UniProtKB/TrEMBL annotation:
SUPFAM superfamilies, A to Z: Acetyl-CoA synthetase-like
Protein name: Eukaryotic long-chain fatty acid CoA synthetase (LC-FACS)
Keywords, in A-Z order: Signal
GO BP term (any one): cutin biosynthetic process
UniProt-listed Gene3D superfamilies: N-terminal domain of ligase-like
Signal sequence extent: 1-19
TM annotation in the entry: none
Native organism taxonomy: Eukaryota, Viridiplantae, Streptophyta, Embryophyta, Tracheophyta
Length: 86
């Protein structure tokens, strides 16, 4: 989530990782210019209100695979760097 008013500067830095980045969710309102800028990079952009309303939509789920990850737990890094565990 991007909370910063420096949205465009952050977005330009994220352009290098857009192959992995699918969506941006902001606690602040998203302007049409910001949405357009994100979409030009292939990234969906939502305000928190828009994002929370997505849960009420019907969606078609992809068939599950045995190799699918269902949970990522994050450690605080008390014995080293913080990390995610699949």
């Amino acid at each position: 989530m991007i909370l910063s008013p420096l949205f465009f500067e952050i977005l330009s830095c994220l352009s290098k990782c857009c192959a992995y980045l699918k969506a941006i969710v902001s606690f602040r309102k998203i302007s049409s210019t910001q949405k357009k800028e994100a979409e030009e990079l292939g990234v969906s952009c939502f305000s928190w209100e828009e994002f929370s309303q997505l849960g009420s939509l019907d969606c078609e789920l992809h068939p599950k695979q045995k190799s699918d990850i269902c949970t990522i737990m994050y450690t605080s890094g008390t014995t080293g760097d913080p990390k995610g565990v699949f």
